[in-house]
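Help needed: design a sequence for this.
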């Protein structure tokens, strides 16, 4: 069968977006891995599926699959692309709408300049919510990896994150320490590993080694987790500009039970049609 799709990106974190409202398809995890392959497939970090809502108060169901074929709870850059996609495809006439994800509901709003604001929900820090194996909810945790003690904070944005503070993000051991911490048994569902350099209380630089993908050019939920952990530790103040390898996001968080709000771009790259084997 032939499947219509749109290739999009949010700051270089790239997506295959599939409308499953006007067409029907089921993608197996081996098919997702093949499509995600940058040499033998289309190439993407995540597959985003646009589906009808299952709950009456929601506009759409937003499903996310990593390049390794695993379904995940949330994707921030994907949420902005999702919002642009449903408007461009005329699947809604609204500029502001609610979507259900595996990680909970999100509110999306497309501004007149095309940038998208996403209410990403309330960050959670309790170890059980990540999930992370620890006795207590603390702002910093430690693990021994290869004979050195690694210090980090943890947060859930629906999906699991660990955030390490580094002096120079360009020199950070993202490709070496990222996978080791990500697969540590203390993270039973693995985690996305962020390396954060603090530039000022209102600006950070960030690289993220993502679960199910590896290092990406940007991670929206990783940006939310880094800012939330930094504000909770008292080293950052809202609003915070987050410079990722693919560009910049703005994050606002008033703390406590309030939602974290992310603003950034969403770009269409091309339309295509692919045969599913
Ligand atoms: N790139 C995303 C996060 C995608 C999911 C993540 N890899 C996970 O496994 O939780 C973002 O922009 O948030």
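Sure. Designed sequence:
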């Amino acid at each position: 069968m032939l499947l219509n799709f749109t290739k999009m990106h949010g700051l270089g974190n790239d997506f295959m977006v599939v409308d499953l409202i006007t067409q029907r398809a089921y993608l197996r995890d081996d098919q997702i891995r093949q499509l995600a392959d940058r040499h033998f497939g289309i190439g993407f970090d995540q597959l985003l599926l646009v589906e009808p809502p299952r709950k009456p108060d929601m506009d759409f169901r937003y499903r996310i699959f990593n390049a390794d074929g695993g379904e995940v709870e949330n994707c921030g850059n994907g949420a902005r692309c999702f919002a642009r996609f449903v408007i461009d495809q005329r699947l809604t006439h609204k500029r502001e709408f609610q979507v259900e994800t595996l990680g909970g509901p999100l509110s999306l709003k497309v501004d007149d300049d095309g940038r998208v604001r996403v209410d990403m929900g309330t960050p959670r820090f309790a170890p059980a919510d990540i999930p992370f194996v620890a006795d207590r909810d603390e702002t910093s945790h430690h693990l021994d990896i290869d004979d050195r003690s690694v210090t980090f904070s943890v947060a859930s944005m629906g999906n699991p994150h660990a955030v390490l503070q580094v002096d120079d993000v360009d020199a950070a051991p993202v490709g070496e320490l990222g996978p080791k911490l990500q697969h540590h048994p203390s993270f039973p569902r693995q985690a996305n590993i962020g390396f954060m350099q603090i530039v000022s209380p209102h600006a950070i630089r960030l690289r993220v080694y993502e679960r199910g993908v590896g290092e990406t050019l940007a991670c929206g939920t990783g940006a939310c987790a880094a800012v939330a952990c930094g504000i909770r530790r008292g080293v950052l103040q809202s609003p915070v500009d987050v410079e990722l390898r693919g560009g910049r996001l703005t994050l606002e968080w008033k703390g406590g039970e309030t939602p974290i709000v992310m603003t950034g771009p969403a770009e269409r790259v091309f339309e295509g049609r692919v045969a599913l084997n």
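The helical segments are 29-36, 76-88, 174-182, 220-232.
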